[in-house]
Amino acid sequence: MVSLLHQSLVRLFDEQPELLRVLLRRHVAIPAEGEFRVSSLDLTDLVPSERRADGALFVRTDAGPVLAIVLEVQLHKDELKRLAWALYTVTLANRHDCPVALVIVAPRPDVAAWAAEPIDLGFGSAIVPIVLGPAEIPAVVASDTARGAPELGIVSCLTHNDRIDVATAALDGTAALDPQRAAMYADIIMACVTPRVRALLEELMATGNHQFQSDFAKRYVALGREEGREEGREEGETAGLRHALLALLRHRDVALDEVAVQRIEATGDPTVLEQWILRASAAATIDDVFDD
């Protein structure tokens, strides 16, 4: 089953192929005047069952294609895919008579290391993939950078989805986008970050500890809270505050014993929980949080 993360990455590169110019500059010499054009690499005419690469991109000049790129998003190890990648690469080279780069986007470090291994074709022949993993995709933490290149901020967030600073920058990067696109990107961010980061984002938005530059990001959480009220989910909101508080304390390595956890879980007053969250952002011990 194709995951949301996989679909999101494929869509971003499909809609913004110029991202590859930025990410591949250390690997491939791409002509400055070259224009990226996206195509679909369908191999149903060569194999009995359907095989389709996630994307095929061409760098074209007035003289024609000067570079073809097979683009694959890989979230897990799958030895069968390596042979498919070789098939995609050879087919594209044969059809278009130009150099071909096999580019694998692999957000997980272990998958990236596996994908980077040469694909052995026998008798000394091999195809060497170019892998874009966490080491190659920069962790964008500056809001100005994300605003200048929103899609780069999103790809960075999806790759480094366990970092709150990358996630906040990515949300800030939607500030200048049209509402529909901003909504899509915010949904992707909130769905693909780790549960810990999601809880921290919600806590930051609820308490105002981070001044989000994207008006949509502010409305996004406000709308969610309003929908919760309309549905009578006051307890759900309080439970979310408790979850955010515990996540923040654990993120800051504040020691928690069973008594402290039980006290937090038993607290139903959102005002008290919000006050504790504010204290937790600077607390050294759990007593600093509870001290009245």
Layout of helices and strands:
Layout lengths: L3 H12 L2 H6 L11 E5 L15 E7 L2 E10 L5 H18 L3 E6 L3 H7 L3 E4 L2 E3 L2 E3 L10 H6 L1 H10 L4 H9 L6 H14 L2 H13 L7 H16 L3 H18 L6 H9 L3 H11 L5 H5 L2
Helix pairs in contact: 6-7, 9-11, 11-13
Keywords, separated by commas or semicolons:
7 strands; 13% strand; alpha/beta; 292 residues; 2 domains; 5-stranded mixed beta sheet; two-stranded antiparallel sheet; 14 helices; 53% helix
In short:
This protein is an alpha/beta fold and 292 residues long.
DSSP strand content: 5-15%
What general form does the structure show?
Answer: elongated
Q: Return the average pLDDT rounded to an integer.
A: 80
> Count of helical segments?
14
Estimated helix fraction: 40-55%
Structural overview:
It is a single chain. This protein is an alpha/beta fold and 292 residues long. The protein has 2 domains: 4-132, no CATH class; 164-290, no CATH class. It contains 14 helices and 7 strands. Strand 5 and strand 6 form a beta hairpin. Helix 9 packs across helix 11. The N and C termini lie far apart (51 Å).
